[in-house]
C-alpha cells in the first residue's frame, strides 16, 4: 500500500504556536521537502537539463543543498578531522555539477541523509550555542538555522522555475 505524501504545509501549520525552535525547524523541513518534490518524477536527463544560461539544474540544486547541509551543521558543530570544508567559491560552483552516476535517486537519498544528519546535530545544541565559522566568525545555531531556511527556500524557488520549464509542474505538492 502506497502512503500518501504529507502536505508540506502541515509542519509549519502545526508549529504556528510552537516555540522558536519548532517554528525554525518546521519551516526548514518544509523547504527541504518541497525541494525533494521538485525532483520527484523527473528522469535523470530531465533533472540535469540546462534550461537557463547558468549551469543550474534541478539535480544540481539538490546536490548543492546536500553540500550546504553538510557544511553548515555537521562540519561546523561536530567536525571530523578528515572532513574537508567546501567554503571556497570553486567548491560552491562545483557543488552544482552533477557527475556521471549521480542519478536522481542517489542525489535524493544523499540529500535525505544529509538533512537527517543535520537534524541530529542541531538537536544536540541550544539555539544560542556558538561556533566559529572560518570565514565569518562566531555564529549561533539560531543564525545557522535561519541561514539554512533562506538558502534552501531561495534554491527551491529556482527548482520550482526549472521544474515548470521542464514539464509545467508548479506548486509545493
What's the quick description here?
InterPro entries: DinB/YfiT-like (IPR034660), MST-like (IPR007061). The protein is mostly helical.
Structure, explained:
Residues 78-97 are annotated as: Disordered. Residues 82-97 have a biased composition (Basic and acidic residues). This is DinB superfamily protein. With 173 residues, this protein is mainly α. It has one domain (10-167): Up-down Bundle (Four Helix Bundle (Hemerythrin (Met), subunit A)), CATH 1.20.120. Helix content is 59%, strand content 5%. The chain contains 8 helices and 2 strands. The chain has helices at residues 10-14, 20-39, 44-48, 58-72, 74-77, 89-94, 104-123, 141-167; strands at residues 130-133, 137-140. Helix 4 (58-72) packs parallel to helix 7 and helix 4 packs antiparallel against helix 8 (141-167). The protein is globular, with a radius of gyration of 16 Å. The mean pLDDT is 89.
Amino acid at each position: 500500500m502506497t502512503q500518501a505524501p504529507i502536505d508540506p504545509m502541515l509542519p509549519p501549520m502545526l508549529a504556528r504556536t510552537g516555540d522558536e525552535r519548532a517554528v525554525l525547524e518546521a519551516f526548514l523541513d518544509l523547504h527541504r521537502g518541497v525541494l525533494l518534490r521538485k525532483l520527484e518524477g523527473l528522469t535523470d536527463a530531465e533533472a540535469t537539463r540546462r534550461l537557463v544560461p547558468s549551469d543550474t539544474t534541478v539535480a544540481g540544486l539538490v546536490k548543492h543543498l546536500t553540500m550546504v547541509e553538510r557544511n553548515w551543521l555537521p562540519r561546523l558543530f561536530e567536525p571530523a578531522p578528515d572532513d574537508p570544508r567546501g567554503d571556497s567559491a570553486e567548491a560552491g560552483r562545483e557543488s552544482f555539477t552533477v557527475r556521471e552516476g549521480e542519478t536522481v535517486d542517489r542525489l535524493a537519498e544523499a540529500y535525505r541523509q544529509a538533512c537527517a544528519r543535520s537534524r541530529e546535530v542541531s538537536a544536540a545544541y541550544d539555539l544560542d550555542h556558538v561556533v566559529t565559522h572560518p570565514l565569518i566568525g562566531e555564529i549561533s545555531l539560531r543564525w545557522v538555522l535561519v541561514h539554512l531556511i533562506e538558502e534552501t527556500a531561495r534554491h527551491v524557488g529556482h527548482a520550482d522555475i526549472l521544474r515548470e520549464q521542464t514539464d509545467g509542474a508548479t506548486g509545493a505538492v
